[in-house]
Specification:
5-stranded mixed β-barrel, 3 domains, FAD/NAD(P)-binding domain, 5-stranded parallel β-sheet, about 475 residues, binds flavin-adenine dinucleotide, Enolase-like, domain 1, binds 1,4-dihydronicotinamide adenine dinucleotide, alpha/beta, about 30% helix, 13 helices
Amino acid sequence: MSEQQQFDVVVIGGGPAGYHAAIRAAQLGLKTACIDAALGKDGKPALGGTCLRVGCIPSKALLDSSRQFWNMGHLFDQHGISFDKPRIDVKKMVARKDAIVKQFTGGIAALFKANKITPFYGFGQLQPGNVVSVKQHDGSTVELKGTNVIIAAGSDSIELPFAKFGEHIVDNVGALDFDKTPKRLGIIGAGVIGLELGSVWNRLGSEVVILEGLPSFLPAADAEVAKLAAREFKKQGLDIRLGCKVGGTEVKKDGVHVAYTDAKGEAQELVVDKLMVCVGRRAASKGLLADGTGVQLNERGQIVVDEHCHTGVDGVWAIGDCVRGPMLAHKGFEEGIAVAELIAGLPGHVNFDTIPYVIYTEPELAWVGKTEEQLKAEGVPYKAGSFPFAAVGRAVAMAEPAGFVKVLAHAETDTILGMHLIGANVSELVHEGVLAMEFKGSADDLARICHAHPSLSEAVHDAAMAVHKRAIHKAN
Ligand code: FAD
Ligand code: NAI
């Protein structure tokens, strides 16, 4: 055992939450170390966490590749472009994705170097007294003492007891790395990963069946958005079956047999070449805490923190997927920055009311703030204004007219309470709502802001005007 090394800040986990905390702490003049256990596909340490290695970035790379391919077969014809049958080289597509991952994970290592952050590659365990022992990949152990320790251990896929991950039954990691398009792809869970990765392989030719346990589709989204999304996904060939209870799986010669009962309670069997299980993720807290640290876990294995991400143990904080709140990279980014600033004596803060949510399907879904259903349940008086992309010149010129923008504002104060979007590029447009809500803006404010013509953002403008029944491009 080497001598204990002393730091102002020791971060456990180099994912979105951890690397943001480490970089911001270093910017603020704190001597910082960051420990990460992950290895890339090449077996070498790879910073950036789930997001850069097997999450946000690789999934978006495949979504973009598959979208280009889909557009060739389904959109280009409208523009008068024709060609022989398009072909997809899956190995090349995956290699492109791997190159992007390598570029970005390497980028974090370069940022650490530029900010003089000391990386440690191995598994970190918090000991009592703000000491972290790190079992490094070469077998050696080092001990780091932090005036502050920030736990950013992230999350892992939930594995169902009757569907163990292997060659045929996979989670996101396997589904980002198929070397050919599975002819039949089964998916358990019609959540974000199921819809995004289901879309990727559906566009490339898989017959995709998604078995969802709940009787309703995307209950967290605005009901009108979810309804239109379900219709669009069905048109694309995604077979989403709601209210299904999966009871077991068996890998046989002809594929994975999935036994389930459908919404009517009737026994069914689905046979697929690959089965992806995406039923949520669990905080990666296993083995993280030695006895006697005082840090508490809740019944879901998440580290218990207060609204400032403090664990209640002097100098110990926790952020990102391993604590409460949405499992989103940008939520982790903000918590990382806020905690580093709090440690440095600055007023760090995360506003959970303005965190945007995006599902990168086609059309994209995005929202911020409350849904109509939530406002009704809370008894908040509101007005709604919506506007369809079919009436937006730019969307029609792009041949992407599906979808709409809906603005929800308080009936008395006009303050924007939520914005719900479905359509092309709404992952970008949702930030108009985020910004307006951060500044406590009103629907009238948004309606009086000049928007470029022609642009997709005109749907936001007209939806804000529609709140007061003065949209220009539709009957109110
Ligand atoms: P992680 O990214 O999980 O990073 C934690 C890191 O800590 C890992 O590298 C892990 O190896 C390391 N670690 C854990 N324990 C230890 C230990 N004891 N010692 C040392 N190292 C340790 N979110 C979005 O906002 N947008 C998206 O588009 C999006 N797409 C996604 C797509 C997929 C397929 C998946 C699976 C997730 C996606 N997410 C997306 C979610 C996003 O990836 C996570 O919310 C985000 O990565 C969480 O960041 P984190 O830093 O908390 O944890
Ligand atoms: P999820 O929580 O989005 O969806 C899981 C789905 O599986 C739910 O609809 C749930 O009802 C269903 N389910 C659970 N158990 C089931 C069972 N036994 N049988 C059938 N259905 C079952 O989780 P998912 O898709 O695994 O993603 C994990 C997290 O990753 C998400 O919560 C999200 O925060 C993050 N993510 C974010 C993305 C984005 O921001 N675009 C993209 C991908 C992931």
